[in-house]
Amino acid sequence: MVPEVLTTERFVLRRFNRRDSEALWRAVADSLPELSKWMPWAHPNYARDEAAAYIRDSNQSWKEGRAYDFTIRTPNDPERHIGNVSIWQVSRLGRVAEIGYWIRTSDTSTGAATEVTRRMIDVGFHELSMHKINLRIAEGNRASERVAEKLGFSREGVLREELYIRDQWVDHTLYSLLEQEWRELKRAAKRSRSES
Predict the structure, then answer these.
(1) Whole-number mean pLDDT of the chain?
(2) What DSSP string runs through 71-101?
(3) Whole-angstrom Cα distance, residue 196 to residue 194?
(4) DSSP for 132-179?
(5) Residue 196 above 80 pLDDT?
(6) Measured in whole angstroms, how far is the alpha carbon of residue 38 from the centre of its chain?
(7) Backbone angles phi, psi at 172, to 5 degrees
């Protein structure tokens, strides 16, 4: 069972509720120039009702166990939406999940994406008992590629013309991480901390 509230060193990740729609809409509006390069839903006329619809769909997916979407907040400013992080099953039989995220433009380059994605990896391997976790990253999104690299994901290949974004087809790079690789990375990090 996936907890509705998770914490990291700096953030609180919690399930969306209806009252979050205004904060979500404001964060998207503040970040549209950057988000629109990578996300097909981030268009210039993104409206409040789209944020509300996303939250309704998110809560339905949660109830059905299809996807787990979290709003990213800080303990010091719990009303400010910093971004989203989600995990969903790609294959129940194969025990494969995928993680997606976006970070408000004013909060990028702070390590937020790496920190919250690391927490979702733990959810995927522990709470959801996944064997493999994927990240699909639009070609050219170097910041997201760095997140995958920092967390130990392997580059598998290119998914050609994966999404239609702003009037063009965009290739995506597929990155993956296996459960045993994650366990070994955590053991190595623990050894490194005990030696310092």
Answers:
(1) 95
(2) EEE-SS-TTS--EEEEEEEEETTTTEEEEEE
(3) 6
(4) EEEEEEETT-HHHHHHHHHTTPEEEEEEEEEEEETTEEEEEEEEEEEH
(5) no
(6) 13
(7) -125, 145
